[in-house]
Write a structure and sequence with these properties.
Oligomer: single chain
Helix content: 55-70%
Number of strands: 6
Order of helices and strands: EEHHHHEEHHEEH
Amino acid sequence: MQPVLFSILGFEVQTYGVSKAAAAVVAALLLGRAFRQRGLKKEDAHDLVLWATVWGFVGAKIYYLAENLPNLTWHHLGGMGFTWYGGLLGGIAAAAVMMWRRHLPAATVADAAMMPLSVAYAIGRVGCWLSGDGTYGKPTSLPWGMTVTHGVVPTEIAVHPTQLYEAVAALGIAALLWALSRRRPAPWTVVASYLVLSGSARFAVEFLRINDPVILGLTQPQLWAVASIVAGLVLGVAVMRGARSSAQSGTGESSSKVDTTPVDSSGPRTHTDNVTTH
């Protein structure tokens, strides 16, 4: 673990911060490419990522402080300590404002953003692992269990590297979303898929982490994960119903068309019709 990459004139460049900056840059590049493929300006994609990142950090810090409110100290105000779901809410709010101000199509932008978001999350989780930020899992005797002797939150007991589990899962989800996007599915399909897949991954990994349960034996992140899964399923059902309704409407319109070609009421003509009687 290496919480600090290097120092410049006494200023420490932290692994955690570098990983988050790298995640934002990669997300901006991927979203810019997705925008171009959809006929949108890549500059709008870059601005969207910038403001979603800024307000995402604000939301993540506020959520983290709220979680630790009973035991709040000056340490909690430092450069570490951010909660993903607070960042997600802050990022969504900033993105919504950007789409409204730039008159961007919500479904197109949202679907395009899911794969870059998942890749960025993976990069961020690797940064959490490298810095040893304390989001590791429970003790384990498995061969890949790791000690965090030089991390921000050190431990000499071998633990599950749950940050890496989440990073691998996020990259797998990104690959699935990329393949789904290439099929040009109905609007909001990619968003619904992301909500279900990412929620399922976090719900499963949380069983290996050390967060305390809050209700029904589930941790707070698991409750958020359940909400994500339910929202994704509801949205997916709505998308399928909309697609089915559109298909039925199209079939009805085509079947209702009637051949209006005029028909000669005198009946079919024969060669005797042209015979003149004298």
